[in-house]
Amino acid sequence: MVILFDLDGTLIDSTDAILESFHSAFDAQNTPHSEDKDIKALIGYPLDVMFTKLGMPQDRVWDYVASYKLHYRKISTQKTILLQEAKEAVIQASKFATVGIVTTKTGEYSKMLMEHFGIMQYFDVLIGREHVQNPKPHAEPILKAIEQLDAKTKDIWMIGDTKLDIICAKNAGVNSIAVLSGYDTYETLNKYAKIILPNAFKAVKHLENRNI
């Protein structure tokens, strides 16, 4: 079995770091600030897409992304926490499955955070934004993870907290579990997911129990 985890809202809560970095980017680019609720509603999308959807000029989007990353790099480990039972979820999953991360977050920062929390050693693959041309909900991130793992099994699961994760899994032809620990509501997830559970640990236990 292969279990692929999303990061933000699934294993970690970096909301404070994300919001602060957005506001830092707006300051750096001398732009009026978007509201926190509008930023939070877009978490899960790549940064360039988030800034575009927030109304930033298309020809300057990557300047905003660069300003964001400059600040995020400084504060990410201090302003990010593991979600409840997330570490237990990863450790438990590694006991009976091959485990990976598929995220729209920059892979470099994702690896840094996982090392900071002492769990990077449990992952066999990490696919971040810079590793693909087409991020979620496109199938490419999951397909790339499967390719890097050289996975022969068809028993592949994506665990994530937004519709992007579930649509990505469907597009890649793999199974998925939605979790309520993150950014999309039950009402939204229920339109896309067949299985919805409270958090990543409950999702992992569900997968473990079906094999017993």
What composes the largest sheet? 6 strands, parallel
CATH class of the largest domain: Alpha Beta
Number of DSSP E strands: 8
Helical percent range? 40-55%
Approximate strand percentage: 5-15%
CATH architecture of the largest domain: 3-Layer(aba) Sandwich
Shape: globular
* The CATH H-level homologous superfamily of the largest domain: HAD superfamily/HAD-like
Biggest sheet strand line-up:
5-4-1-6-7-8
The CATH topology of the largest domain comes to: Rossmann fold
Order of helices and strands: EEHHHHEHEHEHEHEHEH
* Unreliable residue stretches: none
Structural class computed from helices and strand pairing: alpha/beta
Q: How many angstroms separate the termini?
A: 13 Å
How many helix segments?
A: 10
Number of domains: 2
Give the SSE map.
Blueprint: E1 2-5, E2 12-13, H1 15-28, H2 36-40, H3 47-53, H4 61-75, E3 81-82, H5 86-96, E4 98-102, H6 107-116, E5 125-127, H7 140-149, E6 156-160, H8 163-172, E7 175-179, H9 186-189, E8 196-197, H10 200-209
Parallel strand pairs: 1-4, 1-6, 4-5, 6-7, 7-8
Antiparallel strand pairs: 2-3
Structural commentary:
Strand 6, helix 8 and strand 7 (175-179) form a beta-alpha-beta unit. The chain has 2 domains: 2-13 and 81-209, Rossmann fold; 15-75, Putative phosphatase, domain 2 (DNA polymerase, domain 1, Orthogonal Bundle). Helix 1 (15-28) crosses helix 4 (61-75) and helix 3 (47-53) packs across helix 4 (61-75). The protein is built from 10 helices and 8 strands. The protein has helices at residues 15-28, 36-40, 47-53, 61-75, 86-96, 107-116, 140-149, 163-172, 186-189, 200-209; strands spanning 2-5, 12-13, 81-82, 98-102, 125-127, 156-160, 175-179, 196-197. It has 212 residues and is an alpha/beta fold. The protein is globular and about 55 Å long.
